[in-house]
Amino acid sequence: MKRVLPSKQLNSGGSICDEEIELQEYGTVEGGDSGSAHSRFIEKALPYLVPLLLDTMLKQEDQDQDDSIWNVSMAGGTCLGLVARTVGDSIVKLVMPFVEGNILKPDWHCREAATYAFGSILEGPSVETLRPLVTNGLDFLLNAMRDENNNEKLERIVAVLLESINDAPNVAEKVCGAIYYLAQGYEDAGTSSSHLTQHIPRIISELLKTAERTDGSDFKLRTSAYETLNEVVRSSNVVETSLIILELLKSILHKLGQTLELQIVSSDDREKQGDLQASLCAVIQVIIQKLSSTDETKPSILQAADPIMFLFLRVFACRSSTVHEEAMLAIGALAHASGPEFEKYMPELYKYLEMGLQNFEEYEVCAITVGVIGDICRALEDKVLPYCDGIMNHLVCNLQSAELNRSVKPPIFSCFGDIALAIGEQFSKYIEPTVAMMRSAAEVCAQMDNSDEELMDYGNQLKRSIFEAYSGILQGFKDSKPELMLPHAGHLFQFIELVFREKYRDESVTKAAVAVMGDLADALGPNTKILFKDKAFCVQFLGECLQSEDEHLKETANWTQVMIARVVS
Fold first, then answer.
1. Residues of the chain under the 50 pLDDT cut
2. What SS3 state is found at 498?
3. What CA–CA distance (Å, rounded) separates 103 from 222?
4. What is the greatest pairwise CA distance in the chain?
5. How many CB atoms lie under 10 A from the CB of residue 539?
6. Which residues are CB-contacts of 562 (< 8 A; sequence separation ≥ 6)?
């Protein structure tokens, strides 16, 4: 009789994996050999541990098919996923025989366990190890297939998947995951013709049908189908599939319109409506991003902008936080695609932006709204000016509030930079309160306890956003009122030096700090000559960045070096 691990042991195994993953990541960040940092208990136990986990995944209980109910099978799959992340490529040869041996069995327990096991190991191994499973045909899904033609293999794979998606809901959900990763395997095709293109109409059709299944409500099948649909759109060749994606957009807009006519008599009805609207808005966002990504297909999304915005504005009236998030993200994508033409939607949209900024309780909504305001500023530039007084008032109040979750505050500083860059010299009326806030935040960073990992992460976000705010303001004033920033240049230099001398410095913070040094020299010109000559750390900082393996950081450092050379020569 095969032994099955109890939940407590599965949790213990997961905890060991978490610890080893953290040690590996720490070793990578420090640039040392992560192998010397821990004893690799999981890797040593792999031949014994994996079979036990796979056996556990076959122990589904018929009464526990609801994905919201935690059971031994789900715990086994979660633990297997952590093991895969811990050991990487080594997991594949131990799991794939199990997948191949169970995927076609008549018992749904076996089919579900096989697809679950395969999905659980996809995050750990390298792309090079996983790619053959996609590009060469996911052979484990095929029954003794020996055709060497990749196109014909793909035809058979798609056929098997689309047949399997009609299986029991819990199996269908796992099949959605397989389609998700199959599509992802073609994402890097770029502008090249994609072998997946000819299959996309069938895949989209089946995913839409799957999302409509009424027997899948307890298995999150609808959400899984829509998430897979998003990945199919993201991974498609936009030129080859633009007409297909446009038809999909029409279908999704129709479905979104239908949700507004649903009869809502209970909180459960409201929740179901909100979940569906959120999924549909997310699909629309992906479609907007895809069709606006090329000059050839962009006009098609601009022609659909009016009906899209009309529906989004009606959706906001539902007041569901989840929908508010997804619809707001899609609006940000539409603003980016529309550019200055987005101005016509602002009179109606502005009140919902205000609502989002005032939503302290559901702070994720507030954070997303702040990000979308940044998108709108980049799209409208100085046309956003009529709304800036109200927006700035809300942003400053939010920074001063002790009630708002602190995670929203770094994006607010970045948003200051977006606004300044959009309206240029008109930002001068806001400069004093804005810089006062930035100075206060910089002081918080200086006094932060870096032994607290969570606090250190927040500190890095805050530092980066302060630098981004300074960059936006400097660039915004560059052509008209650069002298307004002269009184604040000394403080900015002090903050940059503080960050430079930190023992543990996040790379994103380094990039932002080096960029703002260049912006300072570029915007204020010879006025900064003495500052740069007096600050020897600048030379050290740039030298460090120029030695980096990160090409973007090196490019930024090179540009900054040129800007500084102009003012000190």
1. 1-9, 28-37, 63-64, 135-137, 142-149
2. helix
3. 22
4. 81
5. 12
6. none
One-letter amino acid at 56 equals T
Structure tokens at 498: 């503080």
Distances (CA, A) of 414 to 395, 429, 473: 11, 18, 10
Closest to 273 measured CA to CA, from 325, 206, 319, 330: 319
CA–CA distances in Å: residue 32 to residues 16, 24, 37, 176, 559: 21, 10, 9, 39, 30
Q: What are the CA-CA distances from residue 130 to residues 161, 304, 385, 502 (Å)?
A: 18, 38, 50, 39
Distance CA(231)–CA(233), nearest Å, equals: 5
Amino acid at 236: S
The pLDDT tens digits of the residues spanning 233-249 come to 999 999 999 999 999 99
In angstroms, what CA-CA distances link 91 with 48, 62, 109, 114, 345?
Answer: 12, 28, 22, 14, 52
Q: DSSP letters of 114-148?
A: HHHHHHHTTTSS-HHHHHHHHHTT-GGGSSS----
CB contact burial 493-508 (16+ within 10 A = b; e otherwise): bebbeebbebeeebee
Rg (CA), the chain: 27
Please list, in sequence order, all residues whose beta carbon lies within 8 angstroms of the beta carbon of residue 218, skipping any fewer than 6 positions away: 65, 66, 67, 68, 169
DSSP code at position 148: -
Torsion of CA 125, 127, 132, 135, to 10 degrees: 140
Distance CA 112, CA 60 (A): 9
**HSE, side-chain direction, 13 A CA sphere, residue 166:** 8
Its pTM stands at: 0.77
Q: How far apart are CA 185 and CA 179, in angstroms?
A: 10
Residue type, 252: I
The tens digit of pLDDT for each residue in 390-418 reads: 999 999 999 999 999 999 999 999 999 99
Among the listed residues 433, 400, 434, the one whose alpha carbon sits nearest the alpha carbon of residue 416 = 434
